[in-house]
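sanity check this:
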Amino acid sequence: MSDQNAGGVDARVDITGVVCPVTFVKTKVALEELEDGQVLELRLSAGEPIQNIPRSLKDEGHKVLSVRLLDDGAYLLTVRKGGLAV
């Protein structure tokens, strides 16, 4: 994970090539390292990860800020950690 705050992103995690449910476990671990209101950028694969992770994050009270398809077929998901009325 990176601590760069470029573009308002507090941390980045690449979970392409990781299979469900490990994708969500890695996402949760990354979010645990952040404070409420901070932003995590996830790079993930098509299929189950992009179908399940945004929904699971919303269910846990986090805010999905954007989902973007990249040229290589991966997705870039930006999420704000829940806990604040943002």
Observations:
- Helices lie at 22-32, 48-59.
- The chain has a mean pLDDT of 89.
- Strands lie at 11-14, 39-44, 63-69, 75-80.
- The radius of gyration is 12 Å.
